[in-house]
Fold Type I restriction system adenine methylase.
Amino acid sequence: MTNATAQRAELHRRIWQIANDVRGSIDGWDFKQYVLGTLFYRFISEHFANYMGIGEDGIRYADLTKNDLPPPLF
């Protein structure tokens, strides 16, 4: 086994060990739901922030003020 392969195997083993320590007595399925939910929230948050930063039409929505919006929107 090469050094890089050995390091990757050790990293994989350590990540699983840390995950098991953090999880403790919680069922693996419940822990997986929490972690995947958190990752999904982060994914959505980053994409929403990018969308609000520069919209598809080139407008930077984050820079708009109340004066830039029509009255019923604020």
